[in-house]
Amino acid sequence: MLVPSIFGSNLFDDFMDFSFPDIDKELYGKRAHNIMKTDVKELEDAYEVMVDLPGFNKEDIKLELNDGTLTISAVKSLDKENEKKGNYIRRERVVGNMQRSFYVGEGLTEEDIHAKYENGILTLDIPKKEVKKIPEKKYISID
Fold first, then answer.
1. pLDDT for res 62
2. Count of CB atoms within 10 A of residue 95's CB?
3. How close are the terminal C-alpha atoms of the chain, in Å?
4. pTM of the entire structure?
5. What does the DSSP 8-state code read for residue 138?
6. Taking CA 78 as the corner, what is the angle to CA 118 and CA 71, rounded to the nearest 5 degrees?
7. What are phi and psi of 80, to 5 degrees?
8. CA distance 101 to 116
9. 137: phi then psi, degrees, rounded to nearest 5
10. Pairing relation of β-strands 114-118 and 121-127?
């Protein structure tokens, strides 16, 4: 069954939203499929960040650290060489650019962050830097 769409949105999906709520749409809006889904786990001395990037090659992913902000970028283009003749009826896999940024602190360097990409999941180990303790308030007595 062919379903009409306008500007990349499927009218049938919008009509069915009332009976089949989609948590991704509630969190991220209609462009939820373009968001890098991320889990952040706090460990004793580090943070573990896991980013879903299915279908991307390691070469398509770029990590940049600038002024304490870690930016993850991924680019996927259409594979024109291996594509068979025919017309798509529906296309849901992400093609294009994706980007997401996280503030990790200005004390970190590129050498501190360890990245691994395996089975469509980018895993980052980001160490916690020591936070300077604020001295306890001491009161001065008034004579």
1. 94
2. 12
3. 87
4. 0.64
5. -
6. 50
7. -70, -30
8. 17
9. -65, 135
10. antiparallel
